[in-house]
Amino acid sequence: MIECGLATDEECASKRVSQLIQAAVDRAKSAITKYNNKGDGRAKKIAGCVPPLSECYFAIKVQELNRMISEYTVILTTLLDCKVDILLAETLSTEREAVAILHSLSNIIQQKKSENITSCIPPIWISFTIHDDKPTKLRSDEILENVCNSIIQEASKLNLPLQVIGVNCSTPTAISTAIPILAKVTEGTNIKVSAYGNCFQTTTSEWMNSLDDNEDIKEDTSNEITKSDSSDYDEEGYLTPDAYTKFTLDWVKSGAQIIGGCCGSRPSHMDKVAAQLTSRSSQKPMIRT
Questions:
Q1: Cα–Cα distances in angstroms (integers) from residue 52 to residues 64, 68, 84, 89, 249, in the given order
Q2: Mind listing the pLDDT tens digit for each residue in 276-286?
Q3: Is the pTM of this model over 0.70?
Q4: 251: helix, coil or strand?
Q5: Distance, CA of 94 to CA of 111 (rounded, Å)
Q6: Extents of the domains making up the chain
Q7: Using an 8 Å Cβ cutoff, are 175 and 195 in contact?
Q8: Backbone angles phi and psi of 123, in degrees to 5
Q9: What string of DSSP letters covers 122-142?
Q10: Which CATH class name applies to 46-288?
Q11: Which of the residues 61, 163, 215, 221 has the least number of beta carbons within 10 Å of its own beta carbon?
């Protein structure tokens, strides 16, 4: 329970957000402790999620920059206080969201210089969601290559530890097109490429266009959406672990170093992916679920 007293609604909401984040991180730490007592001895890390502030996918609903910077400050400050291992900004549909996150983090650092917080900023991972039928573009129609180049430059200018840039929450076929673009963008840098796709037979674009409430939020799907063969899906409409693994192997060949699963993926998908990738490489890949 929150004792707000004379605090504003916004202050109460911020406090509640911080409490929920803290509770989530505490549970993650508890799960890691239990796993380490029974597991394979490999250290597990906590990725603190930095999500879209509006509804996922709907770029038209993304707030203006300064308002997002203010709201992200609450999330990022709490995650830093919780000492998460990674700051994972994911499912971003616009460049503006990524810029807001970077500037918010930079502001926090400037405000806390006296606490020497710069020495404990965890690696930053940024991942965008892309059109299922136009995979060279974000759902905002911004060009993926241009956005990623811009974000890499912005992180460097702000002296922030951007470690990974990637795509997620899109069809595996769309991601297959995007990975070579990201590999080109990150060439010659220390930044890794990540990929984790959806496993639903119904794509996000198709779902968005099935909504009745507002024509402005529907995606233009005049281009055909390329999907996996229908035989690659089970009776419930989920991509099978074998089919998903084939995509991930292609992503690795195209330059992805961090692989995972997004909406619709299950432990069976990740088990299969991990088994196949570790058997094909002397260097164990990083897997995210």
A1: 13, 9, 19, 8, 29
A2: 988 876 545 55
A3: yes
A4: helix
A5: 27
A6: 46-288
A7: yes
A8: -60, 145
A9: PPEEEEE-B-SS-TTBBTTS-
A10: alpha beta
A11: 215
Contact 193, 255 (CB under 8 A): yes
106 residue type, one letter: S
Q: Which helix (H) or strand (E) holds 90?
A: strand 86-92
Q: Reduced to 3 states, what is the DSSP secondary structure of residue 226?
A: coil
Q: Report d(CA 68, CA 54) in Å as an integer.
A: 10
Pair of tokens at residue 242: 């074998």
Please report which confidence band the pLDDT of residue 230 belongs to, taking 50, 70 and 90 as the band edges. confident
Q: Is the pLDDT of residue 124 over 90?
A: yes
Which ranges of the chain does DSSP label H, i.e. alpha helix?
A: 9-38, 65-81, 95-111, 144-157, 172-186, 204-209, 241-254, 267-280
**With contact defined as beta carbons under 8 Å apart, do 123 and 88 qualify?**
no
Q: Are 57 and 20 in contact (CB under 8 A)?
A: no
Residue 246: pLDDT band with limits 50, 70, 90: very high
